[in-house]
Structures are given as structure tokens and as C-alpha cells.
Batch of 3 targets.
Target 1
Amino acid sequence: MSEPTPPTRRRRGVYLLPNLFTTAALFAGFYAITAAFNQRYELAAVSIFVAMILDGMDGRVARLTNTQSAFGAEYDSLSDMLSFGAAPALVIYVWSLAGYGKLGWMAAFVHCAGGALRLARFNTQIGTADKRYFQGLPSPAAAAILAGFIWVCEEYGFAGGNVGYVSLGLSVATGLLMVSNFRYYSFKELDLKGRVPFLWAILVMLGFAVLFTNPPVFLFTLFSVYAISGPVVTLAMLRRRRSERKL
């Protein structure tokens, strides 16, 4: 009589490739904070944008290699909290808001807390929310607004203390937009593999030309327009629903 085969043990561990990108994004966010403490504000702003690129790659790499995991999703959220919640808040506080006392750190905290609440709400709505839209401004876009503003000011020689009121307004606005109910287009339905009109190729070429001509102004303008698009899209949808009810 043959002996029963022992049950196979489930291998423990994590997928290395996607988590490498997440770790790199986490490092970029942490480096942004250290650069700000060393008064290298332009480098701090650029590091936040680098974290955005790496954060966008880890999920795509996980899907392409079929290495999605619950650990990876939780790790990505923690990385996002540092890179797009704490890092932009601390960088803009050191750069511009420290001289405003309690008002300054409260404004920075609004952005940080908004990022935490935005990520927590996003994680609880996975699988139930409409994939075409985000509820509230995504935290990477909110971080890009603060980082882009710092980068533009550093590029054109505006000291952080001279634009403190603008920094206060942006910090509070981004924090509140992240926890708002405004709907933002997610771009998840874009078919990058399908054919598009030739005009799109020209527009993409022009976009890259403008980006490399003046990256800080282009990025700050782009994400500011995206932030404004949420209230515009939401109000347009509400008006359409009201008109349909009247009919």
C-alpha cells in the first residue's frame, strides 16, 4: 500500500518585477523630501514626476506579466501615499509655507490627508466603481499640480515665500478635490493598440514638442486643466440628467 502524498505547500513570496517599480516610485517620493530639506526644490519637484512615471508602470508591468497580487496592490497604495500625499505636502511646506506658521502646516496637511482619504476610498471601491471615471482628483494629478507649480516658480526665479498665498490655495484645493465627488475621466478606455486618424499622430508629435520646449509650464498647465475638468464634467452630467428628467 503506497503512502499518501503530502499536500503541496503554497509557495510564499512576492513578485519581484512589478514591486521593483513600486519600490523605485517609493524611493523617488522619499528622495523628493530629502531634496527639499537640502533646498534643492527643483530636483524635489522633478522627483515627484519621476515617481508618477514609475507608479504608472508598475501596474502595467504586473498585468503584462500576469503577476498581480494583493501584496502588490497594498504596497502600491502605501507608495502612493508617500509619493503623492506626504512628499508634495512636505516639499511645498518647506519651500513656501513654513513662514506662515500654523496656517502653513494646516494647508500642507489638508493635501496630505486628502491623499490618504482618496486612496482609502479608491481601494474600497475597486470592482464597483465606473472604470470610465475616477471619483475625486487622482492623487498623482494632485501631486503634479503642486510639483509643477514649484518647478515653474524655480524655473523663473520666484521665491517660495513670495507666492505663499498661491501655495496655500493650491494645497487646500488639491486636498479638497481629492476627496470631492467630482468625476474625472480615467482614460482607461483608450485603445492604444487600435488604429487612429493621422491627425492624432500630428497632435502627439506637437505635444512632445511643447513638452520638451518647456516641461514645467506644460506639465503644470496640463494637470491644472485636468483638475478643472472634474467640476466641468460633473456639472455637465448633472445638467444632462435634469434635462432628461424634464422630458
Note: The longest helix spans residues 215-246.
Target 2
Amino acid sequence: MHILIIDGQGGKIGRAVAEAVLKERPAARLSVIGTNAIATSNMMRSGVKDAATGENPVAVMAPRADVIIGPIGIVIADSLMGEVTPKMALAVGQSRAKKILIPLNRCDNMVVGVEDIPLAEMIRRTIELIP
């Protein structure tokens, strides 16, 4: 199974998810893509070996993944303070991968009905959803 984590800004969420996946699903193939170099660098500190940065890696890798994990903004063009390009959002949205989206109410994207729970709990629930 190929798990792809996409994150932007500082990559804090992506790093935490990558650490959890490496611990809980060590047999999975794990890749990370940052929308910027800082996010990618931070996610690489989790120990993941397969990493890239930017729009084209998302466009190429999203269709190849079995599971895509990231903040909900990865499917919304111009989210994460403009870091998610329309091409990135389209690639993630059109991918046949199972998408596990972490619902963060930031950057003017609000998800009604989302509990206000700590990030650690969101990540625990995310890992439980991986097939």
C-alpha cells in the first residue's frame, strides 16, 4: 500500500502523521510532499525517505497513491494561504486514492460540525482510517 502525505506551511501536521504511519504501519510505502521546502524538510525529520516539494510531484504522485492524507485544504484551490494550487487540488480530488482529510478550520475554510479536538487525537483517528 502506498500512502502519500501532503502538507504545507510548516509541515507540522504532515510530520506528525508521517511519524504515526511509520510507527503503526511500518510495511506501508510512505511518501511525503510539501507545498513548500520548509514543509517538506520538516516532514522528512519523521524519518521518511521518499519526499518531494511542489505542484508537479502532487500531480504525478496523487494518481499513484492508494491513500492520501493531509489537511482538508489539500483539496481546495488556493488554500493554506495560497500554497495549494488549482492543479494540486484537482490532482488530489481526481485521484482514486482513499482520501483522509484532517479537518482544520483555518484560512477561511470552515467545516461545520467538526469537533474541537487536539491535533494528537486527530492524528490517532487518521491512522485508524488507513485500510
Note: The two ends are 9 Å apart (CA to CA).
Target 3
Amino acid sequence: MTSSGIIRTGIGGWTFDPWEGTFYPEKLPKKRQLEFASRELTAIEVNGTYYSSQKPETFAKWAAEVPENFVFSLKASRYCTNRKILGEAGPSIEKFLGQGIAELGPHLGPILWQFMGTKKFEPEDFEAFLALLPKELEGLPLRHVVEPRHESFCKPDFVRLLSKYNVAAVCADHADYPMFADVTADFVYARLQRGTDDTATCYPEAEIGRWADRLETYAKGGVPADLPLNAPDHRAPDSPRDVFAFFITGGKVNAPNGARLLQKRVAG
């Protein structure tokens, strides 16, 4: 029995031209980039699944190229979340889940359901959406995380609703989007989006150290004291939980460096 959950850090995708010759070794074939990235990092968030479907063979190929404890987080199809009535997303959710993602097996990490910044919190409709998210797929347990981007979600009712369904909200470190540092599931999912291309480690090393402390607190069952909560009175179970943190968007050129340093800090 460990005293904390597993902390995984990573990046968005693995194909990005500026990483060639910097993150990736010179002349490394593109077909081997996933193999390399998955041995330098512990998780990757896949954005391509948001825009288009993949074949079962593709997911199986990804799974075969990565080490045992590596996981993929998949961003769910935009057709599931970019709609007026979320409670009517059932067919789109079934189509997304049925495209073959079970081929990832134990490499399947959280599924990210991202919403547009104009989408407001409508409690009844949002609960109808949460009720559509299955707890397993072909025998694989599923973990769901939502990323609302409208301030109307910043209220205790939203936190309590997510807790009811054991769904996490993205702890978004972003200049414009709200942060949900409240724990509402048996895992935590952070997206670190304030990096810059001028910083060799994406985030300043001191800030990476602060995030390492926060992630370790989450993993041990606590809640960081220096992050704002939308429901301060909400009490999550203080048991160990898995934690995922991705360097996304801002500072993408150096995102792999940030992820590697953060992983080193939490491992040390």
C-alpha cells in the first residue's frame, strides 16, 4: 500500500515540428516519435480525437508502441459537447466510445470532455449529460473529466454535481478560463497553460516546483492550500488519488522540458 497515488505528467500530442531536433533526437523517424516520447514522459493528451474519429487498428498500434505504465488521455469528440442541449448527446457519446478506444486497454487514461467558452452552466441539462457517461467500456473502467470555460460553472452546485457522478473538473492554469481546484473524483487532472516559448522549461522552475508540491498534495489525498476553491466547504475523501498534469498550449515549444522536469520533481 502506497501513501499516495500515481502522478503522471505529459504534453498534448507527440507530433510538432519544433520538437524535431530539440525534444526528439536528430533524424529520428516520425514513425518512432511516439515510441520516444512515451519513454521520456508518462502521459500524452490526444487532441486529434476531438476533431475526427480513429480506427481500432490505430489505437491498438499506439498501445503497442508505449511502455507498460504509460497512458493516453483522449479528448472526446466536439460533437458530444458543442451542442445546445447536452442531454441529447447520447448517440454522439456512443459513437465516440465505440470507435475502438478500448484497444488501448490499460493505456487508456481519462477522457476529457471540453466545452466552449460560451457554454453556460444549466444544472439539469448538465446532469443529464453526466448521466450519459458510462463507468466502463468493454470491461475497462472509465475516468471522465470535464473542462467548462464559462464563469457560470464557478459555484458549489457544480462541484457537488460532479462529486455525485465521480467526474473531475480540469484544474486549468489559464489566463482566461476558470480554475477548478476542487476535488470531485478519485483522480485530479491539471492543464498547465501559462508557459512561454522563451522559458526553457515552459514554466519557470520555481513555478514547476510549486506545481510539484500541489500535485503531491493531491496525490496524498489532500487539497493544495494555495489554490482557489469554488466550494470551500466541500470535503473530498482524503484517500490517495492518481494525478495527471499536462503542459498544454502556452509554451508548447518547451512543453516536453516542463513535463520532464515536473515528473522529476514529483518522483524525487
Note: The mean pLDDT is 96.
